[in-house]
Write a structure and sequence with these properties.
Structural class: mainly beta
Distance between the termini: 138 Å
Radius of gyration: 64 Å
Shape: flat
Helix content: under 10%
Number of helices: 0
Number of strands: 60
Oligomer: single chain
Strand content: over 45%
Strand order of the largest sheet: 52-60-59-57-54-55
Length: about 725
C-alpha cells in the first residue's frame, strides 16, 4: 500500500525596491543570523541573533524593529537589549549611540513544523531619516531589513508518494530549480512540484544585492525513510497449540514500537505476547521515523485426546487360587504409564498384576494429550484376621490386675503358645505371668493368620514421700497451719492421729494440718500398688485476752469490748514478745470492774508492762508520762499502741490513741508513753486504758492479732478544783 503526502512550501520571498530617501549621515542597518542550518521537528533551543547597528555620526532615538516569526518556529525566550513584545513582534530599542554602536537580541525557538523557516526583521521607526533605507517598504535590498532561515527536512516513508509545491519569490524574469546542486532540466517556473527525495534550491536572473537575492537562502530538504522489517519468532518454535505446548510466546522485532492484533481485538504493545488459542496474529512494527511494516503468523490447535482401553488375559477381574495373576494390556495411544494409585508400574503396554487393586493406565498421544482407563481387580484368597482382646483391657499384670484373660477371634480354630509351650486350643486362656502370647487362627479355607500380645508385669510399690511446704513442724500462733504435700503416686489418702486435725479433704495430694499430731498418707501408684509415709507435727497456739469490764454487747461508761463474742482484743502468744515480764494464756477475755480479771490466776499479775502510779496531777492541756518495758527478741520490729477512754464512753476512738511506738526486735526495751490530757477529760470515775504490742500492724483496739500481748488498766481522774486534777488509779 502506498501513501500520498501533500505539502505546500512557501519559500522566503525576495522583494526588490529601489525607492531611496535623500541621503544624509544618519544610517541604521539590521542583520539576522543563525548557526543552526538544518534542524529537525522537535528540536529545541534554536537561536537567531538580530543586530541593529548605528553606522552614522549622530545618536538615533526611538528605534523600533518589527520581527516576522514563521509558523514552524515557536518562540521560547529572548535575550534582548531594550524590550520585545511577542504579541506584536515589536522590538523597542530606544536609543543607539553614534559611531558604529550596535544592539543585539538573541531569540530562542522550538522547531514545530517541516520546511524552510525564515525569521525576518525590519527597522520600522527612528527619530531621523535614514538616507539609504525606507522603513515602510520591508525591502530585502535595503540594509534596514534582515532575514535568516533554517530547514526542517520533510520526511516520508518508502512506498509513500510525496507532493510538495515549492514557490520562489515573484518578480523575476526566469527561474532555475536545482536538485542536489544540479539543474533540473525544464524546471524554470516560479513553482516546482517535488515528488522525490533530495536537496532542492533555485536561482533567479536578477543580480541585485540583498539577502539571497540570486536564489534560495536554505535548501528544501526531502528525506525518504526506509520501512522497518517486521518479523515474528515463536517460543517454543512451533505453530500448533496442543497438550504439550499450551501456549506460545510470539516475539516481534524490527522496530521501535509494536501493536498486536488477532484480527478482532488489540492485544497490546509489548514486543512479546503469549497466545493460548488458534488464530492469525498480526504485529504492526513502527520505526522511530513513524514508518510501519506488518507481519503475521497463523497458530493452529490440536487438543484431541486419545481413546484409552484395557484388555485382560485371562478375561477375568478376580485373582483367586486358579488365577494367581492377570495380564492387563493397554491400547489407543503412543505411550503408556501404569499406576495402582500409589506406585508407578512402568511404561510397557502390558503389565502383570498379582494383587487386588485399581489399575489405571494413562495413554499419551503424539500431541501430548492424554486419556485414562482403569480396571478394578479383586481377590478371594483373603486370609482370616486374627485378633486378641484382653479382659480387663490392659497388658500389664500389677497389683490391680493379677491375671488377664486373652480371647482370640477371626477364625475357625485356635492354637496358643508362649514361645516355649503350647497352651491349648481354646479361644480364651488366662495368663498370670509376663510374656509374649501368640495365637494362630485358621479359617475355613485353610488360610492362617497370627496375632501376638505382650504382657508385662509391674508390682513395684510407689516411692511415698511428704514435702513440708512451710519448712517447719511446729504449730504456733503465727504458724497456725502447715501445708503437707504427698508425692510418688497417682492417688493419696491422708489420716491424722495423736490429736492431728486436717482442714478440708483427705483424698488429695496436699492437705492443711492445723494441730499437732501424726499425719500418715497412703500413696497409690499407677499400678495399684501402695506405700505410706508419715510427718509428725508438734506445738500449739495460746491466746492472751484483755480484762476491761464488758457488761453487754454494746458499749457505754465502764462497758468495753473485752470478750471473744464482742470481738475483744486478743493476741497469739509467741516466744520473745511480751509487755513486762508475765503473760498468761486464756480461752476468752476476763472482764472485771477494776480490769484485773486475769491477775488472780496461777500466772500472777500479767498486766505489768505499763506502770501507772496511784496519783497523778492532771492539768487540763497538760500531759502524763507512763513508763513501759518489755521484750522483743523476735528479730522483727514490733508496734506498741495505747488508747485512753478520756470521754468514758466505752469506745476507744481514733482521737484517744496515743502516738504509736516502733520497738526493734533486738531484746529488752523500755520507755515512756507521753499522753496529752484533753480539756474535756471525764472526771470522778474509772476510765479504761488499753495497751497492745504486736509484730503485726495495729489498726484497731479490737480483734485478734497473731503475736504479742494486750494489757488493760483502769484510771481514775479526780479534779475538784478544776485547776489541778489529782488522778488515782487501780493497779492491775
Amino acid at each position: 500500500m502506498r501513501f500520498s503526502v501533500q505539502k505546500l512550501l512557501a519559500v522566503w520571498v525576495l522583494t526588490f525596491s529601489f525607492a531611496f530617501t535623500a541621503y544624509n549621515q544618519d544610517d541604521l542597518s539590521l542583520s539576522v543570523s543563525t548557526t543552526s542550518g538544518t534542524v529537525d521537528v522537535g528540536d529545541i533551543g534554536i537561536q537567531f541573533t538580530v543586530t541593529v547597528s548605528n553606522e552614522g555620526a549622530t545618536e538615533i532615538n526611538d528605534v523600533e524593529v518589527t520581527m516576522s516569526v514563521p509558523a514552524g518556529l515557536t518562540l521560547t525566550g529572548t535575550s534582548v537589549g531594550g524590550s520585545y513584545t511577542p504579541g506584536t513582534g515589536v522590538w523597542d530599542i530606544g536609543t543607539i549611540s553614534a559611531g558604529t554602536a550596535s544592539v543585539t537580541m538573541i531569540m530562542t525557538f522550538d522547531v514545530t513544523g517541516e520546511g524552510v523557516h525564515t525569521l525576518s526583521g525590519n527597522i520600522t521607526n527612528m527619530d531621523v531619516i535614514d538616507g539609504d533605507s525606507d522603513p515602510t517598504d520591508n525591502s530585502v535590498l535595503e540594509d534596514d531589513y534582515g532575514a535568516s532561515c533554517v530547514t526542517a527536512p520533510y520526511e516520508y516513508c518508502a512506498g509513500e508518494t510525496i507532493d510538495i509545491t515549492a514557490t520562489a519569490p515573484a518578480g523575476h524574469n526566469s527561474y532555475q530549480w536545482k536538485l542536489n546542486g544540479a539543474d533540473i532540466p525544464g524546471e524554470t517556473n516560479q513553482t516546482y512540484n517535488i515528488v522525490a527525495p533530495g536537496n532542492y534550491s533555485y536561482t533567479v536572473n536578477v543580480g541585485a544585492t540583498g539577502s539571497c537575492a540570486s536564489g534560495s537562502c536554505c535548501d528544501i530538504i526531502v528525506i525518504e525513510n526506509a520501512l522497518p522489517t517486521a518479523s515474528i519468532s515463536n517460543s517454543p518454535n512451533v505453530t500448533v497449540i496442543d497438550c504439550t505446548n499450551t501456549s506460545i510466546d510470539l516475539t516481534a522485532s524490527g522496530g521501535g514500537t509494536y501493536a498486536w492484533s488477532d484480527g478482532t481485538n488489540s492485544l497490546g504493545t509489548n514486543a512479546t505476547i503469549t497466545v493460548t488459542a488458534a488464530g492469525t496474529y498480526t504485529v504492526t512494527v513502527t520505526s522511530a521515523e513513524g514508518c510501519t511494516d506488518t507481519e503475521a503468523v497463523t497458530i493452529t490447535e490440536d487438543t484431541t485426546p486419545p481413546t484409552a482401553s484395557i484388555s485382560n488375559n485371562p478375561n477375568v477381574t478376580v485373582i483367586d487360587c486358579t488365577n494367581t495373576s492377570i495380564d492387563l494390556t493397554a491400547s489407543g495411544g503412543g505411550t503408556y504409564a501404569w499406576s495402582d494409585g500409589t506406585n508407578n508400574l512402568g511404561t510397557n503396554a502390558t503389565i502383570t498384576v498379582t494383587a487386588a487393586g485399581t489399575y489405571t493406565v494413562t495413554v499419551t498421544a503424539a500431541n501430548g494429550c492424554t486419556d485414562t482407563e482403569a480396571v478394578t481387580i479383586t481377590e478371594d484368597t483373603t486370609p482370616p484376621t486374627a485378633s486378641i482382646s484382653n479382659n480387663p483391657n490392659v497388658t500389664v499384670i500389677d497389683c490391680t490386675n493379677t491375671s488377664i484373660d486373652l480371647t482370640a477371634s477371626g477364625g475357625g480354630t485356635y492354637a496358643w503358645s508362649d514361645g516355649t509351650n503350647n497352651l491349648g486350643t481354646n479361644a480364651t486362656i488366662t495368663v498370670t505371668a509376663a510374656g509374649t502370647y501368640t495365637v494362630t487362627v485358621t479359617a475355613a479355607n485353610g488360610c492362617t493368620d497370627t496375632e501376638a500380645v505382650t504382657i508385662t508385669e509391674d508390682t513395684t510399690p510407689p516411692s511415698a514421700a511428704i514435702t513440708n511446704n512451710d519448712a517447719t513442724t511446729e504449730i504456733t500462733c503465727l504458724q497456725t497451719s502447715i501445708s503437707l504435700t504427698a508425692t510418688g503416686g497417682v492417688g493419696y489418702s491422708w489420716a491424722a492421729t495423736g490429736g492431728g486435725t486436717i482442714a478440708g479433704a483427705t483424698n488429695v495430694a496436699t492437705i492443711s494440718a492445723t494441730s499437732a499430731g501424726t499425719y500418715t498418707v497412703t500413696v497409690t501408684g499407677i499400678n495399684g500398688c501402695t506405700a505410706t509415709a508419715q510427718e509428725v507435727l508438734t506445738g500449739s497456739c495460746t491466746v492472751d485476752y484483755a480484762d476491761l469490764p464488758d457488761g453487754t454487747a454494746g458499749n457505754g461508761p465502764g462497758d468495753y469490748n473485752t470478750t471473744l463474742a464482742n470481738n475483744g482484743p486478743s493476741h497469739g502468744i509467741i516466744a520473745g514478745l511480751t509487755l513486762g515480764t508475765n503473760i498468761d494464756a486464756e480461752s476468752d477475755g476476763q472482764p472485771s470492774a477494776n480490769g484485773d480479771g486475769d491477775d488472780t490466776d496461777v500466772d500472777g499479775d500479767d498486766d505489768d508492762g505499763v506502770t501507772i502510779g496511784s496519783t497523778f496531777d492532771v492539768v487540763p492541756g497538760g500531759t502524763i508520762r507512763l513508763p513501759y518495758d518489755g521484750t522483743n527478741s523476735t528479730g522483727n520490729d514490733a508496734n506498741l499502741v495505747a488508747w485512753v477512754d478520756w470521754d468514758n464512753d466505752g469506745v476507744f476512738e481514733a482521737g484517744e490513741q496515743v502516738t504509736p511506738i516502733v520497738v526493734p526486735g533486738t531484746g529488752a526495751f523500755s520507755g515512756y508513753l507521753t499522753i496529752p490530757v484533753p480539756e474535756g477529760a471525764a472526771t470522778g470515775t474509772n476510765i479504761g486504758v488499753l495497751v497492745r504490742l504486736s509484730n503485726s500492724p495495729i489498726t484497731s483496739p479490737d480483734g485478734y492479732l497473731s503475736s504479742g500481748e494486750v494489757e488493760s488498766y483502769m484510771l481514775t481522774v479526780n479534779c475538784p478544783t478544776q485547776i489541778c486534777l489529782p488522778a488515782t488509779s487501780v493497779k492491775n
